[in-house]
Amino acid sequence: xxxxxxxxxxxxxxxxxxxxxxxxxxxxxxxxxxxxxxxxxxxxxxxxxxxxxxxxxxxxxxxxxxxxxxxxxxxxxxxxxxxxxxxxxxxxxxxxxxxxxxxxxxxxxxxxxxxxxxxxxxxxxxxxxxxxxxxxxxxxxxxxxxxxxxxxxxxxxxxxxxxxxxxxxxxxxxxxxxxxxxxxxxxxxxxxxxxxxxxxxxxxxxxxxxxxxxxxxxxxxxxxxxxxxxxxxxxxxxxxxxxxxxxxxxxxxxxxxxxxxxxxxxxxxxxxxxxxxxxxxxxxxxxxxxxxxxx
DNA sequence: TGCCAGGCCCTCTTTAGGGCCTT
Length: 295
Hints:
alpha+beta, DNA-binding, three-stranded antiparallel beta sheet, globular, seven-stranded mixed beta sheet
């Protein structure tokens, strides 16, 4: 039992949420018992060896009272984008595609603050989702969300950026570009994102690219002769247009990320856009930092 | 519901105005 958990305990917990507790339900001395496992030492010291063959269930409890940073790395299913493949070809992934959504205190990237970061790698798999609340010092209008947001476990932006850099690097394919996709990203998410990096002395890596799915939708869905009218390219409109079912979640920004992943998938198939085409349509961070330096 | 900022895009443009879209 210890051997199994020594290899998997933290990995298992991190896949769920860094502040998650693991409950093990088993049979011991002919009685049903529950063990709450917070650390590996709980496994080695508190768990009776006799329970080993009688584990009947594992439960995962998300603890909101934890003092640990609340950055979560979660599993997601892969999103298959359109891939032009001829017989005998091997599939070449030209870039890592990360769908991004930010929560903020308002619309002005110069004066408002990021409060929530949600990113999903369309490749899917273990740790393919990055989610965190940030800037616990700011106050949200929504009282219930503000209670979660101001907890001590919520990292400051300068604490979250190094974790974000490490995570993106872990998703990168052999130094190939990373494309961040966001809806109305040109005017909203990307200026906030780039400005936050500069504010804390971080440079956006040169091979990070940015693609606005609103811009893309207006171009490709119009070119494709769809009946989507001008003024109907909100994320909700696209979700409805493609008959996508959106799952609810307490992680508000991740709901939109999941929706945009599905929308992006549909758009690439409707317009036969490969990942390589997305790379060609993406911009560098200088597009969003030029305005800042000229102020 | 409308406001907030601002880049994009469309229309009636040519010089500009206004709606879209994001929290």
